[in-house]
Amino acid sequence: xxxxxxxxxxxxxxxxxxxxxxxxxxxxxxxxxxxxxxxxxxxxxxxxxxxxxxxxxxxxxxxxxxxxxxxxxxxxxxxxxxxxxxxxxxxxxxxxxxxxxxxxxxxxxxxxxxxxxxxxxxxxxxxxxxxxxxxxxxxxxxxxxxxxxxxxxxxxxxxxxxxxxxxxxxxxxxxxxxxxxxxxxxxxxxxxxxxxxxxxxxxxxxxxxxxxxxxxxxxxxxxxxxxxxxxxxxxxxxxxxxxxxxxxxxxxxxxxxxxxxxxxxxxxxxxxxxxxxxxxxxxxxxxxxxxxxxxxxxxxxxxxxxxxxxxxxxxxxxxxxxxxxxxxxxxxxxxxxxxxxxxxxxxxxxxxxxxxxxxxxxxxxxxxxxxxxxxxxxxxxxxxxxxxxxxxxxxxxxxxxxxxxxxxxxxxxxxxxxxxxxxxxxxxxxxxxxxxxxxxxxxxxxxxxxxxxxxxxxxxxxxx
Length: 464
Ligand code: SAH
Hints:
Distance between the termini: 37 Å
Bound molecules: S-adenosyl-L-homocysteine
Mean pLDDT: 91
Low-confidence stretches: 452-464
Structural class: alpha/beta
Strand content: 15-25%
Number of helices: 14
Largest sheet: 5 strands, parallel
Strand order of the largest sheet: 3-2-1-4-5
Radius of gyration: 30 Å
């Protein structure tokens, strides 16, 4: 992040702008939304600027800037659309101690003005470090469509009511009140009777929350998918949006954790390889302990919680404690991996069933129906299979599998650092040894990446 976003208090502070044309107008339209003391220097100002000056909304000085003109200014905009003049005026402003923005000159500016979605007092600032103004505009219009125009008045009324809400204890109770106000009671009252109805509804809403029974804790077992945040389900997003506590495993990426509600407590209950760093009993106890305080707990598991996720043990523990729960499925690593190969898990005439198998189980290497797995055309997705590759290779060959059976290993499926190792059953162990795969990896026996087609040109067959 080269530019750190902040909101500058401009009420009563001095902001100076040099310029009188289009660029100046664009900046002034934004600045006029603030309560800054605006001074514009221009020997040839546009009519709008003259009008604003006549209305007393800014001070217009009809000459070029001179040293001392930006004294005490917090911000200065060089908007003459002339490189030499902009360099001259910004040097003056800098010497006078103002922070300088030169319109359309990112490199020489000390700050930049973001694209703004204005739902005053809610303001969204969008910046792309100057890289993609088109993108900023697209995000802006997207947000404008999404944030109702009534958000501004709701926030203003809400702000005036903040003191009254101090009667609720800090934390969840207060959050529940505000979330009902902004997302439910507030918009409803606004629809029915405008701002007045919103104002009338607030005391009753507060009363209701003051006398509300403690909410029961609840546990959502949520699939976080393979890593790409866009592969989260809407239900998973919603659960993260409202979570008080998120207990996640090691597979859950940083990008996904960022989506959790800002006040949520994040707990890493990750297990490493064979040796658990937190025992399953400890994890169960942790989930229950939080839910018993009335928290909305999200137990966030990589992929789909129903696939090699020890879900049943956690559900049983939660049920035994009398706590409510539900499951939100996710995209499992096998689905994400075949998608990356451009293949499907089942195919008419090739395999009518597919096995999800684990490379290791409680006793070490997991045993399977090797005879069936060794048959031509079979497809198996091996989870946690890296360490047991030699064992799996040995068993399959022993049961007569073809040495040239394709095997693909997908590391970090769906993530920016995804890699695909395309090999065969006989080459599996050597190729894996020669690779430096260290992220989560799924082994697909019986599938190769679909032959290079345009759509898959971005697949890196690093070890093919
Ligand atoms: N519930 C998870 C699986 C948990 S077991 C799911 O549905 O995907 C952990 C194993 O899943 C890892 O050892 C690896 O084999 C596989 N895995 C999980 N995420 C993966 C990813 N993004 N890319 C490749 N393999 C992944």
